[in-house]
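Subject: Sanity check before I submit

Could someone independently write out the structure tokens for this chain? I want to compare against mine line by line before I put it in a report. The sequence has 233 residues.
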Amino acid sequence: MNSPQPAILSALSPQSRYLSFSLIPGCEPHEVLEELRRSIDMTNSVIGFGPSLVETLGLNICGLKQHPALSGKTIDIPSTPVSLWLWLKGDDRGELLHRSRSIEHRLAPAFLLEDVSDAFIYGNSQDLTGYIDGTENPQGEDALAAGFVQDAGSRLQGSSFVAVQKWLHDLDTFENFSAEKRDHTIGRHIADNTEIADAPPRRMSKEQRRKALNRKLLLFVDPCHGPMICQRV
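---
Independent answer below. Compare away.
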């Protein structure tokens, strides 16, 4: 039986760092990936393989696919796939920096670091609007069922899929909403964190969230664009 990556469901750390790598064309990744496996502490790290890396390794993972680009009224959401993604958890930003440098050096023969995001927890796992995120995350056995493949006859038993999203907060606009509009935009009352029964239909229901997602939210600040959230489901 395959063991799940333990850091996926462990408590969020005060600081995190996300690393996104592309595979250098023509390079052979097996050796450096094996070195990464031997050296990394999986109690505070999560590793994800993108479709391009899986294909290069000659593998096929049912259900793994590139997220499509999306568009709607006044908004375009690009698809930005990566070959290799790491989530590093810790308490000290300096330690995370040195850990990420070590990983980058180990992977350098075959992978190019494309993006780094330093993230943090705000308050009681709130986003910067002040609302608590992940309230309806499943717990205990429900969390295991929602977060990991449950198929004893499959080689994917214990594995997990992740979708990583970055969202820009327009705090000036949001803060100009009335208190009622802010609550209805989020779908919860900020005063007591209870769900609004008649929330707008675009909001997922409590039951949908309980069954489908293990949401984890951390915040980061982009020097050019301001406060943002990084959400993984």
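---
OP: Matches mine. For the report I'm noting this point. Residues 146 and 212 are 6 Å apart (CA to CA).
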